[in-house]
Amino acid sequence: MAYLFETEEHAAIRATARRFAQAQIAPHGAEWEEAEEFPVELYRIAATAGLTGIGYPERVGGQGGDLSHVMVACEELVIAGRSVGTVVGLGSHGIALPPIVRFGTPEQCERFVRPCLADGKIAALAITEPGGGSDVAAIATRAELAGDHYVITGAKTFITSGARADFVTAAVRTGGPGHAGISLVVIERGTPGFEVSKKLKKTGWWASDTAELRFDACRVPIANRIGPENGAFPMIMMNFANERLMLAGQCVAIAELAYQESIRYARERSAFGKPLTGFQVTRHKLADMASRIAAARALTGEAVTRVLRGEQAAGLAAMAKNIATDMCSFVCDQAVQIHGGYGYMRETLVERLYRDARLYPIGGGTREIMNEVIAKTERY
Length: 380
Ligand SMILES: Cc1cc2nc3c(=O)[nH]c(=O)nc-3n(C[C@H](O)[C@H](O)[C@H](O)COP(=O)(O)OP(=O)(O)OC[C@H]3O[C@@H](n4cnc5c(N)ncnc54)[C@H](O)[C@@H]3O)c2cc1C
What we know:
single chain; four-stranded mixed beta sheet; binds flavin-adenine dinucleotide; globular; alpha+beta; four-stranded antiparallel beta sheet
């Protein structure tokens, strides 16, 4: 099923992304997940194929399009590629670059955005710190002004593509306490004092690298600051709203894949002399999965449409993320159940999807924080 907002343009993007995923990801995805890494070369291949630039304006080297185009491309990559870790690793630019495109200077777009979209340079977003991720206003990484540089000291953790990133778009404290003292700066790999302190092992998303980073008196030019000093908090919040919809879209895609795998298996597998689809209980499981996927897709699609119309949809985006997250956990759990013992085996795709699904109530703002956003926008 497609989103209601889709046009022929979306269909063409789906076809391109599907072809790319079938050729470049699917044959190796399972192996990369086990190896906890995909080849770094894939970033360049995806950029050359024009996939990385979807959703970015042509003035910065993108293919044009908007969030709706990003959503359908991502869905095809997940479904046809069958390796969520690879897709989220390849897509880390999707949260690292938008603040630069929106609030950076043309020079910053040329230096940082274009090389990612055209050549496959790797970008990561670094907000979360070992001391906490939900309370963004409490960021502790310090940036002290010293002439025409900031001297940055602190640490970030759980950073997607952090180990291999050419640069990170990082939130740092340039001012006093609270949300009004935070700036965004681009910190480049190779800057003395910038170190990948740990590559983290995770429950799911194995093929994507997730890292802890350390900044030890890193000297970063003021020219790398994105937007006004101490003005990052609203930029970060705006970025989150889009990220939440992208994550909701990933949940829909993962669930769709788990559902398709379950139908296939239930038709092939026999018990008591008939295929599993011969049991009403299996058919009802599949029907519940299909219904919840359709509901999450409908809400996610509506939220995307409203965002693209310029409406204030932060609350709706948070609702979509929670609904899609719960749906994805439910669907992947049911998929494992339908697969029986094979569903618990590492060789089975739905076993991996079940683990991948666990990230979504945590990453990009937890389930509880989404409810805080909803409570605020609903003004209880
Ligand atoms: C695989 C993975 C990839 C990630 N990628 C990135 C990335 O690329 N860049 C990045 O910056 N971050 C990234 N993150 C971090 C992610 O965004 C944070 O984990 C998330 O925001 C939660 O922060 P935390 O882990 O510090 O949990 P905490 O903030 O410590 O929260 C712990 C628990 O307390 C609850 N809680 C906290 N505050 C409240 C409250 N006010 N009301 C009710 N409950 C509350 C939370 O909901 C949660 O259940 C990633 C995380 C993972 C696991």
